[in-house]
## 1
Amino acid sequence: MADKDDKRPDHDDQGKGRARGVEIHDARAPSRRNFLKSVGATSLAAATAPAWARVGYVNHDEQEPQDKRADEGEAPAKGTQRITLNVNGQAHTLDVTPNMVLLDVLRHQLALTGTKKGCDIGQCGACTVHVNGVSINSCLSLAVMHDGDEVTTVEGLGQNGKLHPIQQAFLDHDAYQCGYCTPGQMMSAVAILNDAEVASDDAAVREAMSGNICRCGAYKNILSAIQTARKNV
Amino acid sequence: MSDNIIGAAKPRIDGPLKLTGLAKYSSDNLLDDMVYAYGVFSSIASGEVTNIDLSVAQQSPGVIDIFHHDHFPQLFRTPSSMEQENKVDEERLPFEDNQVHYAGQFVALVVADSFENARAAAYKVKVDYKTSPVLANLAQAVKVNGTQLHQDSRNSRGDPEPAFQSAQHKIDFTYVTPVETHNPMEMHATVAAWSGDKLTMYDTTQGVVNARNVYAKVFGLSPDRVEVITPFLGSGFGSKLWPWPHAIAAAAAAREVGRPVQLVVPRQEMFTTTGHRPETSQRLRLATDDDGRLVSLRHESISTTSTIDQGNNPYVESCGKMTQGLYSCENLLVTHSTTGTNRGTPTSMRAPGAAPGLFALESAMDEMAIEAGLDPLEFRRRNYADSDESKGLPWSSNKLREAYDQAAEKFGWSKRNSEIGSMRDGNEIVGWGMATCNWEAIRRPCDARVSLRADGTAYASCATQDIGTGTYTIVAQAVSQVTGLPLEKIEVELGDSSYPSGPISGGSWATATALPAVAAAARKALEELKSYAVSERGAFVGAKADDLSIENGQLKSADGKTVAFAEVLKQRKLASADGEAHTGGAPTDQYAFRSFGAHFVEVRWDQGISNLRVSRVVSAIDVGRAVNTLTSRNQVEGAIVMGVGMALFEQTEYDHRNGRPVNNNYAEYLVPVHADQPEVDVILLDYPDYKFNEFGARGIGEIGITGLAAAVANAVYHATGKRIRELPITMDKLMDDVPQAQQA
């Protein structure tokens, strides 16, 4: 029942987060000002125009997401805003409408379907990704707010065809059943293991992981996997 | 290899796909030219649609079409037969008419060029309704319409009433369980694509064969023209056993707009239009003699159905099914009744019948033990059933007494002080309770195919599913056991209706059903391989096939010569040796097949703030042979977690004035999270049940949740002195002088 965001000691109203002493943009808690700035007054105005979202996706074709990237020279289509998302180390320039959510852009436009939608309203944690090193619910974040951001998804966890230590630990400990919440569990786990403010005891890890629901109930094995991976991260 | 692969703890062979995000779930399919559908859902629970105003929605960006009861193709209902494998629970087709039976029913469906546009337009559809009186819950429905008794599930023996009247000790209580919602993490989803008159469905289903047959009936097609594909499922817990209206709506819309359609049911509507465990009210009357032996046992239950189905073969929550045979008692009566409410159609949810049924029975057993002055464990031992008295058949295997022994020993039950509230630890009062768990073992006919391939690998396929239970891995284990090939050389494909016909993933059937067929197919493939080996140009030309044995992926002759399977095939320039097999059900006329076990639960109650938690669970489970102890244990542990949810949190609440669900989301319908995890210790007894199948496996998905809520309730009574007969055991129910919410 615990909301992981509320448990975070570095959460504040200004929408600024602190991770290991470094001041960074806190993607979890955008302020109203940041939101308006990122959406842009023109986009908001355009949102009322009937044609604003007819444009659809720039990169609809799953096969060649790179080639049909919005051309740097061309202006973005009316009602859309051009953003650059750096996902798993790769830059993607996209034209998005203001109502496009980061989760849906990752899944539908970039065909990165490893990140899952479990509730679409920030209650289950299945859509957890890292934005600039901070874990967020990508279903609660508009794509236009992430221009220039570094996004890491489950597809970016492993390196050079090798499983990340958390993935290996999940495999060894059978820390899943159906696998649907698993990407989100692992993204939260990695964030927790990198967060000096989350203690390493079992109770602290359970509390910190409580924003990620596993309906199969593999919590015991997930905890074992996280505590094992701790030694290898 | 072949000696110990069955019963080993093996990591899942499909694990890397799930861990890297490459496992494809239904809504991960992004087809060329695909468009998106989003539903408009009824905001009333009873009445009719009088007008649908599309004027604003149709102007919304990207809209392609909007379907509703006046604009939807003519479809056919499925006969909904379990035997024909074309079952649904909600037989009414979407948009069949303008009638509204429950809140959350589809009243329109928007198709647009993007998910965002479909959703935005759906919000702009304006629907007018004429509201009718609502039956919002069991009590209202019984008051207005009474109940319907289901004779086919009635079970009785002896004469319970006089035995009850003349008994020394007796109890008579009613236990209530609420609507629970499955809430698998993956929302129900369908990607429907037509190619001419062939329909392909990337569908969230626990039964690709049944789903295929349903869609064939609904669209008037030969089953050959429909393919249902579900390689991965974000679990189902029963809610994805039988197709629901959204899947049919998506397929119809795809045909109408001439493009593939993706439809995902929003989380909120998974509380309304994709099934739920119904509300139950169960009257338990038990009586014992002076020795603490049951002389009369009656379990009479009412469960809710939808007004759509009531009177037409509705879903019945079979609460008393386990009660019929779990304990020895000469005089017994089990009945099931239903009453129709304005809720969506209910369906099977993990351990259907047994989960609410054993909450009632095992709570009553605790109350009866206390009434008779006996330790609850000792009371159950005295009423152990040597045979299934409801069927007059011997058990194939029943290790319940050993389960009691092992779990009690590990839990430390002998140290229990039976006095209420007597065990303290700091601010907390510790309560200890126990309950029996029980589930029927079922095995159905099944087909499978196995190929031994020239590249040295083996391939197995079956149209069953892996819904998170580990089926991919245990199928590979079965092939490994027969062929001696290591798991990494075995490829398994499941979840496609075009494969040999396999079972639904439900009722704990899949393992016991699929593995014998897979093993038989593997043996047939070996026979074919041997025939190649002994033929002209074969590796063992001149030898007799029967003289060849199998050793670690090789054929071996009597004189000790070994040749790898792959070599045998290469020598004949063949791609593979193939086997297909059909296996039947279990010998249910000779034995009663059930799994048994026991839960021992510790709760901690902080009286000062009325804080209750489950702190420790020790369970001993006898499911015959656990084929993979890593995934099997995980199944039981997960079922215990869901049982904790059932005991303490889970309840779909409806406004009693209008029948609308009020907590239809993950923040208000509480399920256990990491922080709720108790210390769990699962003991898997290991008594292979070879009367059931060659692997001795009876299946494991359901049993862990049965009895758990009762064990918690019994522990809560031990800690607090409060007997909670209405789930969930929320903290308010443990406080003194707190007025309980009234259900009008």
Note: Chain B touches chain A through 65 residues (CB under 8 Å).
## 2
Amino acid sequence: MIKRGTISPRQVFFILTMLLTGIYILILPRHMVFLTGTDGWLVLIGGGFVSGVILILINKVSIKFPGKTVIEFAPLVVGRLLGKIIGGILAIYFTLLAAGSLRIFTEMLKSALLAETPRWIVVVGLVGLIIWIIQNGLEDIARFTELLAPIILLLLIGALIGDIRYMEVIRLKPILKTEPISLLEGFISTLSYFGVIIILLMLYPYVNAPEKLTKTSLGALLFAIVITVAVFAGTVATFGIYETGRMAWPVIELVKMVRIGEFLERMESLFLAVWLSIAFINVSVLSFCSISGWTQLINIKNYQKLTYPVMFLLLGMSLWPKDLLAVLGLYRINFTYGLFISLAIPLLLFVFTLFSKGGSENGHR
Amino acid sequence: MVKKPGKLLRDLKKQDKTKTDVQPISTSLEKNLEYIKNVFTNCSDIIFREFIVGYKTQIKAALIYVDGLADKVSIHDYIIKSLTLEARASKPDEELQGEDIYKWIENAAMSIAEKKQVENLDDVMSGFLSGDTTLLIDGWSKALVIGTKGWASRGISEPDSEVVIRGPREGFTETIRINTSMVRRRLHSNKLKIEARKIGTYTQTDVAILYMDGIVNSEIIKKVHKRLDSINEVDSILETGCIEQYIEDHPYSPFPQVQYTERPDKVVAYLLEGRVIIMVDGSPNCLIVPTVFIQFLQSPEDYYSRILMSTALRWVRFIGVFTAVTLPALYIAVTTFHQEMIPTNLALSISGAREGVPFPAFVEALAMEVSLELLREASVRLPGAIGSTLGIVGALIVGQAAVEAKLVAPQMVIVVALTAIGSYTLPSFAASIPLRLIRFPLMILGAIFGLYGVMLGWIATLVHMISLKSFGYPYLEPLAPLRISELKDVLIRAPRWQMMTAPQFRKPTEKAPGTFLERPYITKDGGEKNK
């Protein structure tokens, strides 16, 4: 088992921001435009707010069980069987998310940069690196994130600012003309989108100053909401809702339009390189959580042994769907039902910890 | 490194058992001399000088020294002359008897500064082998090792590999004592500790460990000692590089995890930052541990010259590193895969120049880079005048001819030349080697996957660098893990009065030194203090 208490709250901040504004933001605007049209940004703010509440619950629950991940403390809270089921669901959820990010990134890379390269070569290269850093431990993943995240975020914000000249506010109108049922559907999607924050339940024991995490994670969420809303609003304001809905990668199209002077144009290759780092960070964190989740679920001492089987499974899963449409179709399941994981599990755990006083004493050892 | 110490330790324990029976010093001078002469048969440089002390009760004595290692003038003037002529002249009031004679010889009859009493023949031998002179006296079961070290050594000169424009010009020499004295001269503090030890079963090389007591983290000292202990029984230590390979954390990494320097001012600066210096006799280099990567991008001159200038120079070096590692790979990737990134006019001129060149960009670049490395390796060993001729022939004539013969495009010559120049911006030669090594895999990746491959290569490099540790400290320390307060010596070179805060290797319990967050002689409202 890797040493716990080795990563800093600042590193968690960057990990969370990278996860929340990372890979899935590529497909978010399109999905939101389908459901909510121009009101997407309002829905995102609302969903982000509710996710903030969930985040507080997550922090409240985790702080009661220092040194334990959710998979270890869930059986203590809700009983052995239910706890194991929750652990299993989470492990599967992380594995699926990791595979999904890997595949979405590969699709984007293939369509924008390496049209003729076979998909598996791209994926295998990336997965090889991810296996390497996972074997090195979460601490290295956290450091890598901390090193690159500021640069990535700066470039992203820079791209948004650089595109302001193409944006027109008129394209964001009308406000609140969408049907309530679609708004609700959109709201549920945002909950699933921000639901990645429950990864914090897995990261808690590795953090050296857990008492600071509530503030840090809320800060990360707030930052991510701002960027997500800005990206959504920026895309819609640039392309309008119909164009955005028709484009495969609206965010990439957005950064494609950045140009510096008259000579540096078509910077999307640069941004694809940036997204490669994002994908690398996202998939490493998610697969680390999934691997350590499986390890704790079946009580193995050393997570390194499980790395290869889980990563091969992940590789297979990410190559499974036939094309982009199949991937998006599969991911829509998460947009619709993801809230049962991201909302229900923290709520359930919180309610149970309120009623079972024993849990907290167990946790304090 | 991980496995070897264990084996060595086992061997060490085995040898310890046999080592317990050392040869004692006999009271008979003849027996002792016979023993030593037997051990050193066919060693023409060992000199035995027998003489007599006193004239009434004559005592036989013998000096042993190594010709060339010991300073003959001091042996003549301050040992032999004192013990023979002057001792007879200064006759003590009463006749000395037994042990008192030896005490008198040791304490009163010699006019030399350094001496040590030893009690067995092994110490006697190691004494004169290291340049001292041993005095054996008939009837005494002890011996004196007298400090007469003095051999021909190179004068202090400016280190060729670490030239500065502003700053001291002296560099270390091959003699460890001179080197420690150069550090001590700059650091008149009782906190400067210089621990000595010997490593190497055959060479018995003197090794000194320097640190500032109270500033250094004692964990580092412990680690240094533990790692040096584990190599006690290696055959030979000829240079600091031999020690470096044994004690570094990841010997198979392309990145050096121990820095070496020839500059005493650099050593003092690092001592004050709480690092440990390892000096080896016979080498003008000394090792600095722990080392973080960013150190290789810093030159002592940065701290001597003006703030804005050195900050700008730092960024020049960052660009240099990036160029040296990535430029050829980037050029290959862009011209092969992503022509749309190049502005139209430039793309046209590149394709115009490449017309007639028979090779793909990758082969072209590889050929040029390999010939650059050939040129570099060839010129390293040559004396200065011929070296520059080679540079002119290689770089100018061959490059020009290759372009004219349509073997390479002129743009490629520019790229390769910039790569070479970029790698020379690094103040440390050791750090430019990994950059040269990484460049080739990056070029291959760039040729296969385009920009994706280059980025993949960069990520792999970063993953590797992040996993590195130097004596327990992360190799990319102020960057990852991020320490914002220390970035002021990385991204910029902050003013000196802002940098006097606790360095990262400081002992955790130690209080930070007095911090000057403003220039001490300026008052808050900008006026000058009257005092």
Note: Chain A touches chain B through 34 residues (CB under 8 Å).
